[in-house]
Design a protein that fits this description.
Largest sheet: 9 strands, mixed
Order of helices and strands: EEEEHEHEHEHHHHHEHEHH
Number of helices: 11
Number of strands: 9
Strand content: 15-25%
Length: about 270
């Protein structure tokens, strides 16, 4: 059973990615891609069961965690190139990709731009387009970032990432503090670069050509990736299934870890 710990991979453009590999050698690969303003710690609960039978690669998207934060803006082709370079470095020919929010969008972008490198797609709490009101949200957040700092965006963001009941429950304080730590550790250039990337989101038109077995998941109270938006994505994808996590908002894997794990395990065939 491998656990590389945090490892640095230098990119050709002078940046670097932080990654970690866990799980048995020779097993099928699954790659875990984080959301905006989090890092690979987002996936601690999932790694606990995935790494029992799968080879798990998780990494900090550029601008996040211990990865380099180049100047903005970033683009989805750039994020895909980063991941392809890391896969090549690790001799990963093909992998399942599990992502949430930004990570889910990256999984879709990988399936559309590098279909031969992707096995199954697990796209969670994400969307495939950027309508004008969505773009405006990021303009507002970037303006506030420039006026203050990343920390000034944290609590307002958590109010959208989690339900009010979850935030009010003192039993969740430790987990929420880890999320705050990930958020506040995000470099300002990383936040802005990724926000500009999200404004360029234009993946819906490519869904109909995706042949990959695809799972879409969202929380029933997710305002960023509403049920209707993700249902439309599933309807547009030929080989897709869709599951709604009850009593969850945007980070459904953290808010309802047992429900989330059951959906992921079933889709991957880990319960058989």
């Amino acid at each position: 059973m491998t656990d590389t710990g945090d490892t640095r991979f230098d990119l050709a453009d002078g940046g670097h990615l932080n990654y970690r590999v866990q799980g048995p050698e020779g097993a099928d690969w699954i790659i875990l891609s984080n959301s905006l303003a989090t890092d690979m710690r987002l996936w601690d609960a999932e790694v606990a069961f995935l790494a029992q039978t799968m080879r798990v690669l998780r990494y900090d998207t550029r601008g996040h965690g211990k990865s380099a934060a180049p100047k903005p803006p970033y683009s989805f082709p750039q994020l895909c190139d980063d991941l392809i370079a890391l896969m090549d470095h690790l001799s990963i020919a093909k992998a399942d990709i599990l992502g949430i929010s930004l990570g889910g969008m990256t999984a879709l972008a990988m399936a559309q731009s590098h279909p031969e490198r992707v096995n199954r797609v697990l796209c969670c709490d994400a969307r495939a387009d950027a309508p004008d009101p969505y773009k405006a949200i990021w303009d507002g957040n970037i303006a506030r970032l420039h006026d203050a700092n990343v920390a000034a965006l944290c609590e307002g963001t958590l109010a959208r990432w989690f339900t009010a009941d979850y935030l009010a429950d003192a039993a969740n304080t430790a987990k929420l503090n880890v999320v705050r730590d990930m958020f506040n550790a995000t470099a300002a250039d990383g936040y802005e670069g990724t926000a500009r990337c999200l404004q360029s989101l234009d993946l819906f038109g490519g869904l109909s050509a995706m042949a990959h077995e695809t799972l879409y998941v969202t929380g029933d109270q997710d305002m960023a990736a509403p049920v209707g938006v993700m249902q439309a994505m599933a309807d547009a994808t030929p080989n897709a299934t869709f599951h709604v996590i009850s009593d969850a908002a945007h980070l459904s894997n953290l808010e309802q870890p047992d429900q989330f794990a059951n959906v992921i395990r079933t889709f991957l065939g880990l319960d058989t």
